[in-house]
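Hi R.,

As promised, here are both runs. First protein below:
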Amino acid sequence: MNDTSKNDTLPTLVWDLPVRLFHWLLVLLIGFSWLSGEMEWMDWHFYSGYAVLALILFRILWGFVGSTHARFGDFLYGPAALFDYLRSLPSRTAKKFAGHNPLGGISVVLILLCVLLQASTGLFANDDVLYEGPLYKHVSKELSDFMTTVHKWNFEVLLVLAGVHIAAILYYLFWKSENLVKPMLNGLKRLPAAGAPPKTASLWLALLLFGFSAAAVWLAVTR
């Protein structure tokens, strides 16, 4: 889909500003959500969860209308491409992709779904003592307890996915000598000069979609 191999390359904007901001804000918010839960700062825990949910909703929308390499259609590959990529993993030379590689694309989708489940179940959760999610009143106690259990154990799944994600970054850095973090900071990768440049979606569109996502979450939690 976007495998690149030419020698003549130029720095090219691959990860747009909305994708980069989403990535690092999500990292910070998930960390803060964990900390606020452990410290029992439950009001802040809820606020952090709302922000995470708004970010995830935005990223899902951006995955359909955003810049070239932000779109799901750019990094969701078929079985043949995935198996071909897996065969290349032991090599010391990284198989070049402009956007996410096939395994990275699967990782992105799994993390998005996991975080979406985490934030959504938190809206219905309770601690049987003082705190209830903003949508607790709309479900039965039994369903809320089930959502609470899912919320608890899904975080363990999220930790595993995050660990695999970090391990993949380190594997690429030390085994394949490719830094995957730097492009997520400055947005740039070296791509063939003769290739068509990726299309970059409007920042105004990103702001509009994030505003819509934030408003949707606010309306949901204040019902």
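And here is the second one, sequence first, then its structure tokens:
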Amino acid sequence: MEVLLRALEAIRVRWLAGTPRYPVTFVVGPPRCGTTVVGLHLLRARRFATFPNVAKAHPRRPWLATRRALARSQGGPSREFDYANRYGRAEGELAPSDGWDLVEGFFDSYREARANAAPAARGLVKLVAAFEDLYQAPFLLKNNANSMRIGALEQLFPGCFWIHVRRAYPEAAASLLEARARHGVPLGKWWSAAAPQFLGRTFSDPLEQVAFTLLGLDRYLETELAPAKAQGRAKQVEYEEFCAQPAELVTWLDARYASVGIQPTPTGWPLPERFDASLLAPAARGPLERALASWIERARQELEPKGPGLG
């Protein structure tokens, strides 16, 4: 039966899919920097297609699994979900996911994917177009690992929109250290996303690797997204500012779609006026910030270009 379902999935996706009708929106950033809340808020504010949990759970037949789940849901594609999540995972089969098990099938995990990696990932375009058709809405995906794939995704989805979420490093570091410990990630291995500049580097301390992850990914995104930002297609969002005024980001994204003649449909769900940014207590923040500062500076120095004769 599973083989038959996979064959049916392949036929339907091939028949339905071409290229997306709308610009795709990607939410990216270092892990534990608030990308999940940003993505959930946009998906609650406007009707978007995405990869729900049920699709992630069935990576070999995601479209068919999602279609069946939507048919079971009385609310259809617009069924409401809340902001509750655990390490990026919201509850409910139709709640948004990062699509990890789907997207990783087209790329090498924890490896940079530049423009030359795009031809091998053309199947992702067809899959996104199929989900767009299923939801009858533009596609939005929050996935931290996509931070390493700007070049490839720009080739696959021309004209796409980018939201780069940044967070104050002490809070981001504390959360990432906790996530790595909870998931049993050994030193030298990556979790959620890796900094492409430091893939071959060895680390002597967990905080060192966390610092290099945060600064490395932020610097990489700033560089890789510079052309899209100059075209008005990319926005850098400070997590703490988003928490204070989340409506501003919705307005920005509405304007991006309006610039290409598209008006995203409001969901009508209640939206909070602000979020708790989950700041560390001063007694905990001070020592962590001081310990983190030396590693952040070391990462900055290693990213500085070296002239002739300077090593």
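A quick note on the second one: The two ends are 60 Å apart (CA to CA). Let me know what you think.

Best,
J.
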